[in-house]
Write a structure and sequence with these properties.
The structure is a single chain. With 125 residues, this protein is of the alpha+beta class. 21% of the residues lie in helices and 34% in strands. The chain has a 4-stranded antiparallel β-sheet with strand order 2-5-1-6, covered by helices on one side. A two-stranded antiparallel ribbon has the order 3-4. α1 packs antiparallel against α2.
Length: 125
């Protein structure tokens, strides 16, 4: 493998998803996996009432956006995500960065950077 492959996990507020996807697409990040997750941290939880009883809810709904990059600079992804997601309030989220040792495109058997790069002639029409 000749190029460094990096995985970036972004955990943030669900209402920021569309804005984040648009901003990442604009810098060339096209592939991503999005999951609905629950978490807790400094933000803490909140109290809800159900059938007249109060319940402490300490897991807050979030979204997790996972992407893998090799040609787009990691710093550019981090700066873009922070610019879009930062409100200055508790609950803005976290970004985790991992170095990957390899990747495999199952359909073709490509490995390394070739496994995650979009090849224009292979795009589905």
């Amino acid at each position: 493998m000749d190029r460094k492959i990096t995985k970036i996990d972004i955990i943030t507020r669900p209402e920021k998803l569309e804005e984040l996807k648009t901003a990442l697409n604009e810098i060339g990040v096209l592939g991503m996996t999005v999951s609905q997750v629950y978490g807790c941290g400094t933000q803490g939880g909140h109290t809800e009432t159900y059938r007249g009883r109060e319940y402490e809810v300490n897991l807050v709904p979030k979204i997790k956006v996972e992407t893998v990059v090799c040609e787009i600079p990691v710093e550019k992804v981090l700066e873009t995500a922070q610019k879009i997601l930062r409100t200055g309030k508790f609950g803005d989220g976290k970004i985790f960065v991992y170095e990957l040792s390899d990747a495999v495109r199952i359909r073709t058997g490509h490995r390394g950077a070739a496994a995650i790069m979009d090849i224009p002639e292979e795009k589905i029409k």
